[in-house]
Design goal:
This protein is an alpha+beta fold. About 40% of the residues lie in helices and about 20% in strands. The strands form three sheets. It has a seven-stranded antiparallel sheet. It has a five-stranded antiparallel sheet with strand order 1-2-3-5-4, covered by helices on one side. A hairpin with a 2-residue loop joins β14 and β15. It binds adenosine-5'-diphosphate (ADP) and the ligand O=P(O)(O)O[C@H]1O[C@H](CO)[C@@H](O[C@H]2O[C@H](CO)[C@@H](O)[C@H](O)[C@H]2O)[C@H](O)[C@H]1O.
Length: about 450
């Protein structure tokens, strides 16, 4: 089908990509097709589909490598609910992640193993999960950076949108922790890989789906709402008290950290590297927020104190972007998901060994977010004057419970510096994605620097 590498197709993709949340904003100058890995076609196959590997050349020189499975069918014969990207010579090109036949085929092959051209399907040894073509997939239906579908309420297939050379960290961590029998991650069932520029690249992961899971953010939102229901009651005695769950979450994160330290190498401390990276990030963000820049000297002091405190710690693999949306409470315990680290950070930094306190800081920042966002969303004038104190007491109580569940969070100056660094990261993230939320990390930076935590 000659249209698959046509210049008209790359122009249509140039217009389509910026509309996709996973693209991450901006308008590419050019879209290049690096590979079109055919999945099927022919009389016994419901659609002609290929996994496209694209490079989006952005203004300023950034090059984003992306994955976009595309389907091709005669106009009028595209599956219901799929989005047509363009029509070329009577052939409609559509986003194949919304074609259940294509996604079911990918899931089925990942469970079964084998290869189709340059696509390699690698089932996890010992997994007994079978998927057949008779049971279609459904979209996960939540906002995300990649694209996931659920198969038969048993399996979840995540297709990575941004591609990086080498094993994807999420796939790698899940593979090693599944093999180590770690109960804090969803077991890996298989991966889809290919080779690009002579290097292996992970395209997708298939995992067991926790159908009964509720994410930590939803639980926190419900709990913080309850904390306001009876102002006469102690926060810990309120109906939706979360502290016992936060204690268990702390213990689960500690177990995951122990498993990561065993499954991967550990390293020496890197106090100057840690401090240097925090200051670099601060300076990049201060360019956007002059009010932040005015506190550089105080920031530096906090970070240097932390570097001093880090000399006796060892570094290891960590989650890297742990927050309440990255933990799922199932009927049997807490699961940590999405080990890709902070989106937007270079891959080498995301897999670099770090101090476990990075994840603790991420979670306590998230509790602050849950409290502050609840306050911000209260209808104007409806809140009683004590609401702010009460939700902040809620965050403080849950922070204590989480850290107590973790056990030994390490020296206080380290946690303080990592919280500050996380708040600086969040400020940059919010300015790019949700400017009306920037108040939350901005307030946190001031509070930490003022010593009010
Ligand atoms: N194993 C799982 N069981 C149940 N739900 C899951 C599982 N893994 C992910 N999810 C759901 O899918 C959503 C997106 O997953 P995530 O790995 O964070 O994707 P992304 O990398 O695109 O952000 C999560 O917020 C969660 O709701
Ligand atoms: O889940 P992602 O890997 O996409 O993480 C990014 O987006 C998160 C928002 O969805 C962002 O998290 C921030 O907002 C959360 C509430 O929506 C809050 O719980 C987190 O504490 C806060 O950092 C995350 O920083 C970003 O990397």
């Amino acid at each position: 089908m000659s249209v698959t590498a046509d210049h008209r197709l790359t122009e249509a993709l140039r217009a389509w990509l910026p509309q996709q949340r996973w693209f991450g904003g901006g308008q590419p100058d050019e879209v290049i097709v690096d590979a079109a890995l055919a999945l099927g076609g022919g009389p016994d196959w419901p659609s002609c589909a290929s996994v496209y590997v694209l490079t989006a050349a952005m203004p300023g020189g950034e090059r984003r490598r992306l994955q976009a499975p595309l389907g091709f069918r005669p106009v009028g014969r595209t599956p219901a609910g799929t989005e047509t990207i363009t029509v070329l010579d009577g052939i409609a090109c559509y986003d194949a992640t919304t074609d259940p036949a294509v996604m079911t085929e990918l899931v089925r092959r990942t469970g079964a193993g084998g290869a189709v051209g340059d696509l390699r399907f690698v089932p996890e040894p010992g997994n007994s999960v079978a998927a057949d073509a008779g049971c279609p997939v459904r979209p996960i239906g939540v906002e995300q950076s990649n694209t996931s579908v659920v198969y038969d309420d048993r399996l979840i297939f995540k297709l990575f949108r941004r591609l990086h050379p080498g094993l994807n960290p999420d796939a790698e961590v899940h593979r090693r922790l599944t093999r180590a029998g770690c109960r804090q991650v969803a077991p890996l069932v298989g991966t889809v890989d290919t080779v690009l520029d002579g290097e292996p690249v992970t395209l997708a992961v298939l995992q067991e789906f926790a159908a009964d899971a509720v994410d930590g953010w939803a639980m926190a939102q419900a709990s913080v709402r309850e904390s306001l229901a009876d102002p006469a009651e102690e926060v810990e005695m309120a109906g939706g008290d979360l502290s016992a769950e936060m204690f268990r979450l702390g213990a689960a994160v500690a177990s995951a950290h122990r498993a990561l330290a065993t499954a991967f190498e550990i390293g020496p401390p890197d106090p100057t590297g840690i401090a240097g990276r925090m200051i670099e990030r601060f300076d990049r963000t201060a360019v956007l927020v002059p009010e932040l820049g005015r506190r550089r000297a105080e920031f530096r002091e906090v970070v240097e104190e932390a570097a001093y405190a880090a000399v006796d710690s060892s570094t290891q693999r960590v989650h890297g972007d742990l927050h309440l949306g990255q933990v799922l409470r199932t009927s049997t315990g807490w699961l940590l998901i999405d080990f890709e680290g902070e989106p937007g950070r270079p891959i080498v930094e995301r897999i670099a060994l770090d101090l476990p306190v990075r994840d603790l800081a991420g979670m306590v920042r998230s509790l602050d977010y849950a409290a502050e966002r609840h306050l911000a969303d209260l209808p104007c004038g409806s809140a009683d004057p004590g609401a702010a104190d009460r939700v902040r007491a809620w965050a403080a109580a849950n922070r204590r419970a989480f850290l107590a569940g973790y056990g030994d969070p390490g020296p206080e100056p380290l946690l303080r510096a990592y919280e500050l660094d996380k708040a600086v990261y969040e400020l940059g993230y919010e300015l790019r994605h949700r400017p009306s939320w920037a108040e939350v990390p901005l307030r946190a930076v001031a509070q930490i620097l003022d010593g009010d935590t």
